[in-house]
Amino acid sequence: MEMQEIIEEVRSFDGVLVVAPEAGSDFPELSWGDAYFYHAPDGRMPERTQPYGTIITKDYPDDTSSALDAPGRFRVNIHVGRERAASIIAAGSLTGGDTDPTAVDVFRPHPLYGTAGWVCVINPAAATEGAVLALLREAHEAARARTGRRAR
């Protein structure tokens, strides 16, 4: 599955905002080429809300364990909540639970935010692509519910 396919699927979600910084934009250069997913029905990037999902295309200074600087690699990161993340990882029910932090098409805890309920997959393919899209949709719906609660 290609990064653009994931982005296009997420763009079909009701009330989504996909932020995809490009070269020359006002976003920090380090973020260029990555994608950030928010529930933002007004089309404006939320000021006090983290994205519910991201796709990153390169190593960051504090996040190099996925070896994303190699050509053609990207990592999908999804906030699923602590309990759900633990069950996905512990059971290995979606991918087999490979522990190599550079392995592709395998769910694992996010290298930095795993304890906060984030899971990730490098280059989703046959074993994970359906689950990745389903989890992104669930994360979007959870973000929408949070937005609704804050508005009340």
Please explain how this structure is put together.
This protein is an alpha+beta fold. The protein has three helices and six strands; from the N terminus they run αββββαββα. Strands 1-2-3-4-6-5 form a six-stranded antiparallel β-sheet. Residues 93-97 have low confidence and may be disordered.
What's the topology here?
Elements: H1 3-11, E1 16-19, E2 35-39, E3 53-56, E4 75-79, H2 82-91, E5 107-109, E6 118-122, H3 129-151
Antiparallel strand pairs: 1-2, 2-3, 3-4, 4-6, 5-6
**Tell me about the biggest sheet?**
6 strands, antiparallel
Order of secondary-structure elements:
HEEEEHEEH
* General form: globular
Q: List how many beta strands DSSP finds.
A: 6
Rg from C-alpha positions?
15 Å
How far the N terminus sits from the C terminus, by CA atoms, comes to 38 Å
Give the neighbour order of strands across the main sheet.
1-2-3-4-6-5
